[in-house]
Amino acid sequence: MTVAYWCLLIAALLPYAWAALAKGSGQRYDNRDPRAWQSRQDNPRSNAAYAAHLNAFEAFAPFAAGVLGAQMAGVDTGIIAGLSVVFIVCRVLHGVFYLTRKAPLRSLAWAIGFGCVVALLVQAALAAA
């Protein structure tokens, strides 16, 4: 189960990595009003990193629920670990594809990552039945 817990940590920190990239890619960062600062950015890299930041936050809660639910239901730890690693790889690629403006690949990475979350939740439901 250790692998899945490390994946949870990575998934929890990933939004902050994308935020740091967004702030570092834009005009001089203004911490007094960060949301207004971001809305004024015209640097595509800053905007893409910010979008990846928001999407990483959206993806975290269902992933965490899937991992913890699967663990509590007694799903095999190898299945949980495998799905967790694939999820993390997809989430990192999702952000990279945002930054490199590869929308079809970004959507594919998102879909595979979401599929991992669904698989974790289905495995939990089946194990609990």
UniProtKB/TrEMBL annotation:
Compartments reported by the entry: Membrane
SUPFAM superfamilies reported in the protein's UniProt record: MAPEG domain-like
Span of the signal peptide: 1-19
Listed transmembrane segments: 79-100, 107-128
Keywords recorded for this protein, A-Z: Membrane, Signal, Transmembrane, Transmembrane helix
InterPro entries: MAPEG-like_dom_sf (IPR023352), Membr-assoc_MAPEG (IPR001129)
One GO cellular component, as annotated: membrane
Record-given protein name: MAPEG family protein
Organism: Lysobacter antibioticus
